[in-house]
Amino acid sequence: MDRLLVVGAGPKAMAVAAKAHVLRELGLPAPRVTIVESHAVGGNWLPSGGWTDGRHRLGTSPEKDVGFPYHSSWARGHNRAINEAMMAFSWTAFLVERGGYAEWVDRGRPSPHHHVWAKYLQWVARKSGVEVVLGTVRTIAAAAKGWEVAVVDADGVASALGSDALMITGPGNSARALAEHPKMLSIAEFWNLIGRRELPSISRAAVIGGGETAGSAMDELVRHDALTVSVISPAATIYTRGESYFENSLYSDPGKWRALSVDERRDVVRRTDRGVFSVRVQENLLGDSRVHHLQGRVVRVGGLGEGIELTLRNERRPDQTHAFDLVVDATGGQPLWFLDLFDADAADLVELAIGGPIDKDRLEASIGHDLAVTGMEAKLFLPNLAGLAQGPGFPNLSCLGELSDRVLAEATMRSSAVRGGATQRAEYLR
Ligand SMILES: Cc1cc2nc3c(=O)[nH]c(=O)nc-3n(C[C@H](O)[C@H](O)[C@H](O)COP(=O)(O)OP(=O)(O)OC[C@H]3O[C@@H](n4cnc5c(N)ncnc54)[C@H](O)[C@@H]3O)c2cc1C
């Protein structure tokens, strides 16, 4: 792998960019990393990205930064140097450089606002010197040696980038809502109104969804004057994210993950990641008597004029219809959003590798140790779909340092095998 193209300049891209920089500094082979980004580095943590107004706080600790858990163990003889060099890209190094470290410690190490997290990511981009191409990836095609990616910039100018490996990041589009209804907002519309301070006055608000996206929207809505704020999700309740050592360690150290059965893995994800709000968001909501949870899947959106009606379905109960003034669809991203960009040949290659028509289950099951789809000659890294097969921390911010190791180690070993033969390759392996 000589050239890795990453779609999206979020935390995953920055983790890989920083590690590739460190490997090169240490004289080890690393691919040239190019990132294509539609908005700005850290775009989805800024108001313009459509997932936040930037003023809400990170749910996880910022010490889970681009190098966390600083535990590279694949490059025999170099691991310590890699871990030490990565510390230069840490959240605390960022604060030290900006002169804010002592204040952050004295204030009790608060989680930063999303827009500050974006600033940290931008600092990593500058420090690593990674190439960032500003533009939107429109199509991804299979090429003779890897991939060809068509990019269109803000002025509509098109260009094509070639790479032998591709990594997809991010949750996709936030502008879609469950139904077209004047009282139903997509998450992008919601944050756009909040940013412009134009959210209409409401008495009955509802948020559909049970993840980070819904948590942030609820956290915002309780700051407004609504009489009731309901969160709608299929689970029996909204769980509080377990933050004990046992739960966290499964996210930080995916080494244990492979020893669990698929049922056990699904159980961990269900208890810790789905329908779960962070401790901080939950504390904020629990004390507010206007907040309620409604169980069910939304199966119908109706109502005209002033209100909107949602029909909720639960297995053991008849359908129930509830009326609201405003509903925010915060069901989150579409895990397979990037497939819309693939041309027919590229999609065929994926189908061939996963042994059937592309769906989420097949793709998830196909993700190998290097976080790429197993069996593809041109690497396609899909860390967002690696949760079930490789570890629940890969789709989020829980082990970005491990993520970059998985993506780059194989490449480093492969290129050393090309350059120096199998003996040199074996040296990198423990
Ligand atoms: C409100 C909210 C809060 C969250 N808080 C946490 C948290 O505290 N802890 C945690 O672990 N996880 C959190 N998450 C989950 C979070 O999305 C992931 O952990 C993490 O941001 C994903 O990083 P990423 O690098 O995959 O993508 P992102 O940070 O989402 O970056 C993707 C980038 O891709 C760009 N992009 C999209 N489409 C294209 C295209 N076609 N061409 C070019 N560029 C494109 C976007 O502009 C964006 O900058 C949160 C999610 C949300 C929505």
Question: Any overview of this molecule?
Answer:
It is a single chain. With 430 residues, the chain is α/β, with parallel strands linked by helices. It is 35% helix and 21% strand. It folds into 2 domains: 3-172 and 333-428, FAD/NAD(P)-binding domain (3-Layer(bba) Sandwich); 184-238 and 275-329, 3-Layer(bba) Sandwich (FAD/NAD(P)-binding domain). The chain contains 14 helices and 18 strands. The strands form 5 sheets. The chain has a 5-stranded parallel sheet, with helices on one face. It has a 5-stranded parallel sheet with strand order 8-17-9-10-13. It has a 3-stranded antiparallel sheet with strand order 4-5-6. Bound molecules: flavin-adenine dinucleotide. Flavin-adenine dinucleotide binds at residues 7-13, 36-39, 43-44, 49, 51-52, 58-60, 136-137, 169-171, 212-213, 216, 384, 396-398.
Roughly how many Å apart are the termini?
21 Å
Radius of gyration: 22 Å
Q: Under the CATH scheme, which architecture of the largest domain would be assigned?
A: 3-Layer(bba) Sandwich
CATH C-level name of the largest domain:
Alpha Beta
Give the uncertain stretches in residue-range form: 417-424
Please count the helical segments.
14
CATH homology-level superfamily of the largest domain? FAD/NAD(P)-binding domain
Number of strands: 18
Q: Can you give the mean pLDDT?
A: 93
